[in-house]
């Protein structure tokens, strides 16, 4: 998957693989770890590999993340935003103001037409749709979504079968 700073930041809220959502930036240690992992994405000269975060930085980063996710949700509309976001979206104009104040975040505008919210059950990720009919952020999400679709179809088929069987009785 293509890595871009704003996407990486938005993706720090993610599906935990077990029906829940994890936040990689919930703690100062988590922020330090995440920043160090992003060193290759940041402009040369920013020694992210040596940063140690504090609570103030954590709060500022998670605020930027709220703004990024709010704008992502707006960009993917009229498709629905990731469901984990619905209760924490900030108004888009406020999000823009917030982001304009943060020069370190790359502009998402040039690729906005390719941004999508993953439609797999319980997934909360955004991704850049790089080819064709891609609907999911990663293959395992595609497998989960197809399994859920298959299960729904089978259930509907068996329901309509038993309904028509009821009529003939
Ligand atoms: Zn996904």
Automatic annotation (TrEMBL):
Domain of life: Bacteria
InterPro entries recorded: ABATE, ABATE_dom_sf, Znf_CGNR
Residue span(s) of domain Zinc finger CGNR: 115-154
Protein name, per record: CGNR zinc finger domain-containing protein
Organism per entry: Streptomyces kebangsaanensis
């Amino acid at each position: 998957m293509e890595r871009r700073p704003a996407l990486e930041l938005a993706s720090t809220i993610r599906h935990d693989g077990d029906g829940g959502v994890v936040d990689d930036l919930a703690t100062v240690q988590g922020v330090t770890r995440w920043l160090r992992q992003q060193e290759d994405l940041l402009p040369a000269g920013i020694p992210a590999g040596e940063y140690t975060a504090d609570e103030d930085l954590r709060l500022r980063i998670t605020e930027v993340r709220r703004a990024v996710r709010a704008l992502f949700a707006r960009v993917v509309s009229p498709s629905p935003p990731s469901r984990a976001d619905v209760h924490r979206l900030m108004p888009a104009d406020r999000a823009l103001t917030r982001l304009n104040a943060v020069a370190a975040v790359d502009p998402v505008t040039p690729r906005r037409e390719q941004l999508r919210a993953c439609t797999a059950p319980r997934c909360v990720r955004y991704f850049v749709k790089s080819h064709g009919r891609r609907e999911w952020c990663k293959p395992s999400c595609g497998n989960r979504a197809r399994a859920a679709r298959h299960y729904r179809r089978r259930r509907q088929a068996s329901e309509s079968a038993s309904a028509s069987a009821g009529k003939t009785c």
